[in-house]
Amino acid sequence: MTLLADSPDPLNWTVLLPVLAGGLAVWYLLPSPQKRPPVFGILAGLVALGGVAAFLVRGLGQRIPETVEAGLFFGFSGLAVVFAVLMIINRNPARSALAFAMVVLSTCGLFLLLAAPFLTAATIVIYAGAIIVTFLFVIMLSQQEGPSNANLRAREPALSVAAGFVLLATFLVGLQRVYDRRTVDAAIEHASSLARADRIPEEYLSPAESINVDNMGNHPPPALTPKAAEFAAEMRAALRQVKLGVPRVGDGRRFGDHPIVQDVETAINFLEISGFRYRDAEDVRTYCQTVADGLQRLKHLRQGSAISDDLTLSEHGMVRPVERPDGPRQLPAANVSAIGRTLFADHLLAVELAGTLLLVATIGAIAIAGRRERAP
Amino acid sequence: MSDPSALLLLIPLLPLVAAVVAGVFGTVQRLRPWAHAPVVVAAGLSCIAAIGTVSMIETGISRQEGGDSVQSAPGPVTFPKLKSEEDRIVWFGISYGQTKLTADLSLTADHLTGIMLLVITFVGLWIVVFSIGYMRDSPGYPRYFAIVSLFLAAMTLLVLADNFLLMYAGWEGVGLCSYLLVGYWHHKQSASDAARKAFLVTRLGDVGLILGIFVLWMMVGRDGFGYARIFDLAPQLAEAYPTLFPTACLLILCGAVGKSAQIPLFVWLPDAMEGPTPVSALIHAATMVTAGVYLLARCTALFALAPGVQLTVASIGVSTALVAAFIALTQHDLKRVLAYSTVSQLGFMFLAVGCAGPVLPAVAVTAAIFHLFTHAFFKAVLFLSAGSVMHSMHDVIDMRQFSGLRRVLPVTHLTFLAGALALAGVPVFSGFWSKDSILEAALEAGRSARFGFAYTILFGVALATALMTAFYTFRAYYRTFWGPVSMPHGAHPHEPWVMTLPLIVFGIGAVVAGIIAEPFTHWFSNFLTRSPVIVQASGGHTVEHHLNWALMLGSTAVALAGVGLAWYLYQSRPGSAEDVAAAAPRLYYLSLNRLYVDEIYNILFVQPLTLLAGICRLIEAVVFDLVRLVATVPRYLADVIRPLQNGLVQFYALSMIMGVAAFIGYLVLFAR
Amino acid sequence: MISLPHYLAVGAILFALGLIGFLSRRNLIVMFLSAEMMLQGVALNFVAFSRYHGNLHGQVFTLFVIAVAACEAGIALALFLRLYHRKRSLDVSLWQDLREPGMEPTVDTEPLPSVPKEEPLPHLPPAGVEPVREERHYV
Q1: Quick check: A274 and A290 in contact, CB under 8 A?
Q2: Do the bridges between strand B62-65 and strand A249-250 make them parallel or antiparallel, or are there none, so unpaired?
Q3: If we measure between CA atoms, which residue out of B14, B289, B8, B352 comes closest to residue B162?
Q4: Distance from CA of B662 to the nearest CA of C (A)
Q5: Which of residues 97-136 of C touch A (CB under 8 A)?
Q6: Distance (Å) from the C-alpha of residue C12 to the closest C-alpha of chain B?
Q7: Of B545, B565, B648, C26, which is least packed with CB atoms within 10 Å of its CB?
Q8: How many Cα atoms occupy the beta-carbon half-sphere of A92 within 13 Å?
């Protein structure tokens, strides 16, 4: 585990740093009867924010272009996260409500970046307008004097922070696994460069005397050169990462690795046992080519952009491959009319149901809140 | 209604509906004083329907069939009219392989049933009327009338049923009503105890009855509950099952003994006087307790084939009559005297039924049912008069506390006198004729070949009992209505018309019912002996009517002797009764303490059962503690995780999220 | 161009923070705000997917989320008012009647810090002359 490494380890510092620091900060800042100077919490929170930024920049393996969009994204995201933290730590519910309004506004900025102007407007009107105002009314109606348990205490802060951040770490690692393809790309490049080479570079070859080609298998494997060992480890790591998304095959009772995975593993094993020294250098190149092809194939399978005849994508049968273009697709320019068309063409029943639900909820809210009851 | 036989259905149905109506609408405060109205109406209509039924039995039914009026022959009426197998109304049915158990919901009214119906609905109607005055200020007014109405429904169902199972339903129904009405004043400990006692003691008999029914079913097989089929097969059964058949008869007798309060199960009836007096008159004197006699009369066709059982029946009857009369001699409680006299008179009826076989069943059964018929009138009037006394004497019924009431309660006095004369068996009054016919039947049975000597002894004992009956009846009469006027504190003698009217009706009945119905006209026996059961049991022989003048003179002498003795001891020379008691103190206390029967039962049955219960409790305590020891283990285990259920919503949400986080975390970070 | 996983990451962070707020804060209103914030995180994911799949279903779904959230808010706030009328407090921990029978209720032992009273806002003296009310006497 190295800091900001491009490794597929489940827990690397790109994930751990923001999660640990953020958890510490939130736990520290949550309401508690003990007096805590907020400075340390703020410091930890800043570290966590930096960690999140680093994760977004490097941890996902995607290039961040230096555009205005990136700046806006980071600005809105930062505002959203900061106000989210402020919302849950604030001891005054009215301020919490205002912080929530800010979270909603920042999210709306993100919506705008995602080409959803109608949603932006709707969310601002409904959430930041109507709902927040309702909240403020309720807060006003149920105003409490002096210190209260409700605002100055937290229920199991350590446990809930732990649970929440474990979940967050899981999400982030999952994202990283799916979207960080750098390890695989590098391995493929490495293997195919060896396969294309006229002759295998000398630093891969084990000393000739340690090889008994005629009686291979009965001897202990030869000592690999550092370069060769590094090659094997790299291939194995790439394979490990890439095979996660590939379905296992089997007859329903026992599942084995996919044939391509087995081919790649066999090729790597042969290269290791032989110490890259065969009678014919062509063999070594063939094995390297097998590894490169296999990894490439597996990568495509995982992305859903390739499918083979002998392959089912799930253990329960064939599913439709996901078409996954490299970049985002084009949305219709006329956002509002397109949403309207989708709403009333594809989701008419849901619209009716939602309308009924709103009506019922209105009646219910009036019925519940309107009843006069003498306080005990 | 198109089918006149549907009238049968109305007889139980009307009181049932009235019971529901009274029970439901009686709870409304404003309708409460009118809770009796539906019951009176239903009882009246039911009575009219009963009269209609009897006339249908007598004359036959005319019904419209396809536009023609078809007059059927006189005889039993059945409902539903069975034209084919599909007309049967099956109450429930179980079929398993060859065995088939079906109970039909079908009613039949033959001559026996007709007389029972008349007695039940007529007495029921007037007692309900009497209750309007008697129960006026009682709490639970609607409840009383609802239960009485329910009782009428169950009792009429009992006599109308044409198979044993439906009869048993009515049988249990009247038992339930009896329980409810004895415990009517349930806040009184003695009343609720008496109710429980009545229920449990009769239950002993009922178990026997249902066992008997099933033994019969076992022997008969398919359709083995219907009276007609069983009685048809009775001679074959008696031959085919020489031991099982008498056993079945004995088991049925068991039920009759329990319900009719015979030895050894008679202890519940005197205690049942804790209920309201009209209930004592209706249920515990006139109708329900005669169900046992009815059952035996209904099953004469069976019992006549088992002479040993018949002797048992007669012996039980006579010994009960003697014992009850002996106890009644010294009781101070007017209602208790009447209760023991009821037990005693039921014993007489058993004696009569038990004579069927040695004598022609037609004669014996007629004697029993005739006594049942007259007894219903005179015992009803006696009880109602006692109720009237009790009502006036501020619920005091101890004869030591009042006397000379003939001046303050003239109507009651006269009606009680009529009833007492009938009960004592003074000539011309109804009881004389019926008791005479019983004695005659017993005398005739004494001439039979097989158990002649035994029946002769029974006759002698019955005659002695008749003497005691006359004595204790008039003892009660003189102590209550003669002598100097004295009343307990709080007495307010009055006789409202709703109470005197039934008294007069029953009083007239007690005087004339016997002489009109039987001795010279033979209406009663002519009607009853046409009943198919009795014809079947009698094997086609008919009765020759004759009057046994010698026996009549003898029983007249006995009755007058009893009355005279009572007059001598209690009226002519007041205080001489104490001298007699002092002369035989042991006998006196034996009678006063009711032969210590309750105490003996207590030692024989109650104490061993209590002991057994104690032992069971001990065993249970040990077993229970063992089980509890085992049960504590999961409890202590549960105590470990119990605090998790702490009622905090957020804590629940937290545990849920922790689970989700652990699950997803494992899947994403560590799986594969 | 910012790619999909970045938006997903931000959505995940909002969701996790809302979750923590829901689990740990004891004020009913703040709990509910936190739940709404979780919905915001989900909505962000939907919109991002909508953008990257090139259709509008995600945005439509977000609209429904907003509609349902509005219903939820109406009913929940009405309920909060009722609860507040009962106990004069919005502390969710006051409602723990559904615990195991015989268990002691969970109570807070640590004393609350004394919060200094806020300075009352200065009051301006009333201007003008107070009108004198004329007393009428009925004789």
Answers
A1: no
A2: unpaired
A3: B8
A4: 15
A5: 108, 110-115
A6: 13
A7: B545
A8: 9
Give the tens place of pLDDT for each residue, B339-352. Answer: 999 999 999 999 99
Residues of B in contact with C15 (CB under 8 A): none
Quote the pTM value. Answer: 0.59
Tokens of A26: 């939130």
* Backbone region of residue B647 per phi and psi (left: phi > 0; alpha: psi in -120 to 50; beta: other values): left
Residues from chain C contacting residue A327 (CB–CB below 8 Å): 1
Q: 10-residue block means of pLDDT along chain B (672 residues)?
A: 76 92 85 88 92 87 67 79 69 72 83 92 92 85 92 93 90 93 90 91 92 89 80 88 90 92 88 89 87 92 88 92 91 90 93 87 89 92 90 85 86 92 90 90 85 88 92 90 84 84 90 83 84 82 77 90 88 80 84 85 90 93 88 86 86 92 84 58
Q: pLDDT tens-digit profile of B85-98?
A: 666 777 777 776 66
Cα gap B550→B567, rounded to integer Å: 25
How many residues does this entry show for chain A?
376
Q: Which residue of B has its CA nearest to C19?
A: B657
Count interface pairs B-C at CB distance under 8 A: 40
Tokens for B63? 């019904």
Q: How confident is the model at residue A23 (pLDDT cuts 50, 70, 90)?
A: very high
User: In the numeric block, which tokens belong to residue A320?
Assistant: 């439709």
Compare CB distances from C12 to A107, A168, A357 and report the shortest one's residue.
A168
Residues B551-595 pLDDT 10s: 888 889 999 999 998 888 888 887 777 888 888 888 888 888 888
Structure tokens at B630: 């085992």
Q: Which of residues 620-659 of B touch C (CB under 8 A)?
A: 642-643, 645-650, 653-654, 657
Query: Residues with Cβ < 8 Å from C79, sequence gap 6 or more?
Result: A368
Give the CA angle between residues B14, B16, B22 to the nearest 5°.
100
Q: How far is A228 from chain B (nearest CA, A)?
A: 27
Q: Find chain C residues with C-beta within 8 A of B657's C-beta.
A: 19, 23
Q: Spell out which residues of chain B touch residue C96, defining contact as CB-CB under 8 Å.
A: 646-648
Model confidence band, residue A227 (pLDDT cutoffs 50, 70, 90): confident
Q: Tell whether B650 is within 8 A of chain A (Cβ).
A: yes
B485-508 confidence digits (pLDDT tens): 888 887 888 888 888 899 999 999
Q: Do C97 and B642 touch (CB under 8 A)?
A: no
Q: Compare all CA atoms of chain B with the CA of C22 and give the residue at the minimum distance.
A: B650
Q: Chain C contacts of B649, Cβ < 8 Å? A: 92, 95
- In terms of DSSP bridges, do strands B99-104 and B107-109 run parallel, antiparallel, or are they unpaired? unpaired
In this prediction, the answer to ipTM > 0.85 reads no
No. of helices (H) and no. of strands (E), chain B: 27, 6
Over residues A164-202, the pLDDT tens digits come to 999 999 898 888 877 777 878 888 888 888 888 877 777
CA B570/CA B483 separation, integer angstroms: 9
Write down the pLDDT at residue B252: 93
Which of C23, C26, C99 is closest, CB to CB, to B646? C99
Residues of A with CB under 8 A from a CB of B: 10-11, 155-156, 159-160, 163-164, 166-167, 169-170, 173-174, 177, 244
Pairwise CB contact (< 8 Å): B654 & C26 = no
For B51, what's the count of Cα atoms within 13 Å in the CB-facing half-sphere? 6
- Can you read off the two tokens belonging to residue B46? 């039911």
Query: What is residue A225's DSSP assignment?
Result: P
CB-based contact B18:B39 (threshold 8 Å): yes
Per-residue tokens: A5 = 């490494």
Q: What is the token pair recorded at B507?
A: 């009083």
Tell me which chain B residues have a C-beta less than 8 angstroms from the C-beta of C98: 647
